[in-house]
Design a protein that fits this description.
Elements: E1 2-10, E2 16-20, H1 25-34, E3 41-45, H2 51-63, E4 66-70, E5 73-77, H3 88-91, H4 99-108, E6 110-114, H5 127-135, E7 139-143, E8 146-150, E9 158-160, H6 166-177, E10 182-186, H7 192-204, E11 207-209, E12 216-219, E13 228-230, H8 235-245, E14 252-256, H9 264-273, E15 275-281, E16 284-289, E17 297-299, H10 311-318, E18 323-328, H11 337-344, E19 348-352, E20 355-360, E21 368-370, H12 374-386, E22 390-394, H13 406-411, E23 416-424
Parallel strand pairs: 2-14, 3-13, 9-10, 17-18, 21-22
Antiparallel strand pairs: 1-22, 1-23, 3-5, 4-5, 6-8, 7-8, 10-12, 11-12, 14-16, 15-16, 18-20, 19-20
The protein binds uridine-diphosphate-2(N-acetylglucosaminyl) butyric acid (EPU).
């Protein structure tokens, strides 16, 4: 038994007002590992205060780094980093801890990083990270569940990823930036967070071409320098607010800092469903839905395809569409755990292998449900808002891994979510 959180959600309340998208957690996590590549003081603006960010910061602190927040501004100092080992207790909490493998090996010649293991959404192996670093001349062994990397000097090389993995591309970008000579990463991930990391590395002094394309070219440097960066907006949080806006036709929500350019495909699907989106200025939008919603066919894919992180969120609204929708999940084998929970609220979702069949429209009614992972948790918050009566979301602390004060921000729009601390059985990631 451990202390956890539960959200008590009163549904059926139309929402009105303004909400602002915070900085992208998945851009901050690699940026924090990147602070090891050049020892010194870094400054980041627009940092979300979420549990995953604090977990990465605790790892940095263990290594000898220091940090403090001033509002959403984060100051990191890596001048006195002296350790190369990541403790299991922290690594097992956050899979992004694998990002320290590339950064530590490149900057100190050594890294001891516990295998992050499987998690609720799937097996999520790290073989691409390992194989890529070996191509850069690191020696990697496995000892009692720890990946041990050694390299007196990393050397550039040519890497072809089997799949455009986001964190593998990020790990290799960091390692290659301090490697001797030139590195080519083929079949690289093209996510905006990868491009952001490449921008940070370039500002630090690395030579990088092709970030956001299939092949990235990196010319390693002997030394890099610390930098100041502003974190890009979180496209997954923005997508969550898009669906929040469309829960009821009466909702009137203005979304600020909306990263329009990162959401082309999800917006296409949103419109296909019967959603409209009005743009006020570059990053301010108002999304609405028509009374009748149309069913969708969605297939998740690496960027610029439909993001796996948004499929549980869209599924909530699809329970209200007139007809049969399908979602095919192509990235993670266990990303439909939320469907069982939505069915408890009255949804009609059938899972067959990689596909969810969602029959709508089904009215939802409050009941106890459980967050199985971060995005499943956010989806269930939306479902609770849509449902009649009260929904109690257990293991709600998982939502706080990636959303800063979601209940508070939704309550400011007229929602009613109470956060309660309680003793419960925790199913960890
Ligand atoms: N894969 C391998 N071997 C590897 C690495 C990946 O087989 O060495 C497979 C995975 O099992 C998966 C596919 O490749 O089937 C893609 O996974 P990827 O490596 O791209 O995922 P990730 O880097 O571990 C990041 C995000 C996830 C997001 C995915 C997909 C971060 C810190 N995490 O994970 O975000 O779902 O990309 O876009 O950037 C979240 O924010 O809730 C979250 C889970």
């Amino acid at each position: 038994m451990e202390r956890g959180l539960k959200y008590v959600i009163k549904g059926m309340k139309p929402l009105k007002g303004e909400i602002e998208v915070k900085g992208a957690k998945n851009a901050v996590l690699p940026a924090l590992a990147c602070c090891l590549l050049a020892r010194g003081e870094y400054q980041f603006k627009n940092v979300p205060r979420v549990r995953d960010v604090f977990c990465m910061l605790r790892i940095l602190e263990h290594l000898g780094g220091k940090y403090f927040f001033k509002g959403s501004e984060l100051f990191v100092d890596t001048s006195h980093v002296s350790r190369v080992d990541i403790p299991y207790e922290l690594a097992s909490k956050i899979r992004a801890s694998i990002l320290f493998l590339g950064a530590l090996t490149a900057s100190t010649g050594e890294a001891i990083v516990p295998l992050p293991g499987g998690c609720a959404i799937g097996k999520r192996p790290v073989n691409f990270h390992e194989r890529g670093l070996k191509k850069l001349s690191a020696e990697i062994t496995l000892d009692h569940g720890n990946l041990i990397a050694k390299a007196s000097k990393l050397k550039g090389g040519e890497i072809i990823l089997d799949f455009p993995s986001v964190t593998a591309t990020e790990n290799l970008l960091m390692a290659a930036s301090l490697a001797e000579g030139e590195t080519k990463i083929k079949n690289a991930a093209k996510e905006p967070e990868v491009i952001f990391l490449a921008k940070m590395l370039k500002k630090m002094g690395a030579e990088i071409k092709g970030a956001g394309e299939d092949t990235i070219l990196i010319k390693g440097k002997k030394h890099l320098k610390p930098v100041k960066m502003e974190i890009i907006s979180d496209r997954i949080e923005a997508g969550t607010f898009l669906i929040l806006s469309a829960l009821f036709p009466e909702n009137e929500i203005i979304i600020r800092n909306f990263p329009w350019e990162f959401l082309e495909y999800p917006l296409l699907k949103f419109r296909e469903m019967g959603g409209t989106i009005e743009k006020f200025d570059k990053n301010t939008v108002k999304a609405k839905r028509s009374k009748n919603l149309y069913p969708l066919e969605i297939q998740t894919a690496p960027y610029p395809g439909f993001p796996t992180d948004l499929q549980p969120i869209f599924a909530v609204l699809l329970t209200q569409a007139q007809g049969l929708s399908t979602i095919r999940e192509n990235l993670f084998e266990n990303r439909f755990l939320y469907a069982m929970e939505l069915n408890r609220l009255g949804a009609d979702i059938l899972i067959e292998e990689k596909t969810a069949f969602i029959k709508g429209p089904t009215p939802l009614t409050g009941s106890p449900v459980r967050a199985t992972d971060l995005r499943a948790g956010a989806a269930l918050v939306l479902a609770g808002l849509l449902a009649e009566n009260t929904t109690v979301l257990y293991q709600a602390e998982l939502v706080e891994r990636g959303y800063e004060d979601l209940p508070g921000r939704i309550n400011a729009l007229g929602g009613e979510i109470k956060v309660e601390d309680e003793l419960q059985l925790i199913n960890r990631e």
